[in-house]
Amino acid sequence: MRTQSISLLFFVIGYVLCQPPMGGQQQPQDPPFLQGASDSVKSSFRALFENTDNFTEKQMDDKVNAWIAQQSTTIQNQYKQFQQQMKQMKQQAQQAHQRAVQTLSSGAKQADADLIKITDNANLTPAQKNQQISDYISKLQKSNPSVAAEIQQLMQQAPQMMF
């Protein structure tokens, strides 16, 4: 369960930081636990994600946790609240995902479980996860197109449930 909530946390933070500026003038939106933090604190947080393409999820988690440990009590407490919110969101997404998976064929259920194992593997980089998922789907399309179609439909209906 810890890995799954970390997966979501990493995904959310990455997503928030990777949002393009709107109108070319605004900065990417910071995570809510940095609300009210100084610009230097926000900048140091963003710097954590520079040159991290080859970092595994676990390495990034460790890096973020080390950074959080050096911050003020206020930020640490806000981060704990953020983690709780992410945990709740993850649980809700997992429940919705489980409901959706119940309608799948047994082959698609197994494929879904295999894909979840990939996304929950904290020892992979995001690029490795993407590559493994892509390879898995490609092989599935060749070996069992109907199962691949079920999985792709599930992913299109609710991509947030996959992470």
Automatic annotation (TrEMBL):
<dbReference type="Pfam" id="PF02520">
    <property type="entry name" value="ANIS5_cation-bd"/>
</dbReference>
<feature type="signal peptide">
    <location>
        <begin position="1"/>
        <end position="18"/>
    </location>
</feature>
<dbReference type="InterPro" id="IPR003677">
    <property type="entry name" value="ANIS5_cation-bd"/>
</dbReference>
<keyword id="KW-0175">Coiled coil</keyword>
<keyword id="KW-0732">Signal</keyword>
<feature type="coiled-coil region">
    <location>
        <begin position="72"/>
        <end position="99"/>
    </location>
</feature>
<dbReference type="InterPro" id="IPR052823">
    <property type="entry name" value="SXP/RAL-2_related"/>
</dbReference>
<feature type="domain" description="SXP/RAL-2 family protein Ani s 5-like cation-binding">
    <location>
        <begin position="41"/>
        <end position="143"/>
    </location>
</feature>
<protein>
    <submittedName>
        <fullName>SXP/RAL-2 family protein Ani s 5-like cation-binding domain-containing protein</fullName>
    </submittedName>
</protein>
